[in-house]
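Budget justification aside, the reviewers requested a transparent look at the raw inputs and outputs of the sequence design task funded under Objective 1. We therefore reproduce one unedited record. The lines immediately below are the structure tokens for a 315-residue chain.
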């Protein structure tokens, strides 16, 4: 009985050994399929996302007190019209999580005022570029497009003034009316000085009186041409970069003259906070052509609102 039991045990042990050998052989395949393909390779971390995931409601972002300050004359309208003016008109956008805007307009007897607000949230689709870096690139493009003046430190070169010819004499040739062509010499004290052509000195002959110059009418821009624009040159009011507003900011101030229409001034403030870019435009058009919108007053109002919007984003 003992011999039969031992014969039955041996085949079972052999089967167990065969299974173990087969499993070990399959796990030690030389193809390397069981090794992690990323082992030993440096991992690339994605750039950090921007601070903002959503955008505020634009028409409700401007306080009523600021609207009354920026849109003088609206408070004299009937109640229903006031409500409509202060409510603003939202901009049409395809994705309110990426871009929103609103505009306001109020007409008064002395001037018309407009306010426009644009808020853009920038998202980078390049994993190696952060949202903030992408937003800074877009902001820089806006700054370049504004053509802000660059302060010049170069000293202007004085214009050279003509000096009398040494020894008080000059020799030249010229043609006089009715006197023929000839060559002569004139001293520095002779009022009838002959000059060489191209020397830049006016030729005066004693025999012929000078002909009065007919004034030339100023050229006018052709119909349909763009209106002329200019920026203020008063120190401190010129278009410039701004400090203390977001991560980067600038102000632009342009007075536009369109001929028959009244002149109007537009003050723009653009600033970036993380991956959000805010653009604010404030326009005033007087009802009388002789009135020029006050640059300092408009800049102060636009900057005050921009700072308030920047504080809201940082809350």
């Amino acid at each position: 009985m003992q011999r039969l039991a031992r014969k039955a045990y041996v085949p079972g042990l052999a089967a167990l050994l065969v299974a173990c050998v087969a499993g070990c052989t399959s796990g030690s395949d030389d193809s390397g399929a069981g090794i992690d393909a990323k082992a030993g390779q440096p991992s690339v971390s994605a750039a950090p996302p921007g601070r903002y995931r959503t955008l505020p409601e634009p028409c409700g972002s401007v306080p009523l007190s600021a609207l009354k300050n920026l849109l003088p004359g609206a408070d004299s309208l009937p109640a229903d019209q006031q409500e409509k003016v202060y409510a603003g008109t939202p901009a049409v956008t395809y994705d309110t999580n990426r871009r929103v805007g609103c505009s306001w307009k109020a007409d008064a007897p002395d001037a018309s005022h407009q306010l426009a607000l644009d808020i853009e949230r920038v998202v980078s689709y390049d994993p190696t570029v952060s949202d903030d870096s992408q937003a800074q690139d877009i902001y820089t493009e806006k700054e370049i497009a504004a053509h802000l003046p660059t302060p010049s430190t170069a000293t202007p070169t004085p214009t050279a003034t003509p000096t009398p010819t040494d020894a008080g004499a000059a020799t030249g040739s010229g043609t006089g009316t009715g006197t023929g062509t000839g060559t002569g010499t004139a001293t520095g004290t002779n009022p009838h000085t002959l000059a060489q052509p191209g020397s830049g000195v006016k030729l005066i002959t004693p025999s012929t009186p000078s002909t009065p110059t007919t004034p030339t009418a100023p050229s006018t821009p052709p119909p349909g041409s763009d209106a002329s624009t200019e920026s203020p040159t008063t120190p401190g009011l010129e278009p410039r970069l701004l400090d203390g507003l977001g991560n980067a900011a600038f102000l632009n101030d342009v007075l536009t003259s369109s001929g028959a229409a009244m002149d109007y001034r537009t003050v723009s403030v653009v600033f970036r906070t993380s991956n959000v870019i805010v653009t604010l435009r404030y326009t005033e058009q007087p009802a009388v052509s002789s009135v020029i919108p006050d640059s300092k007053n408009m800049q102060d109002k636009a900057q005050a609102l921009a700072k308030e919007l920047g504080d809201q984003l940082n809350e």
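The chain has a mean pLDDT of 75. The longest strand covers residues 111-121. Computational costs for records of this kind are itemized in the attached budget.
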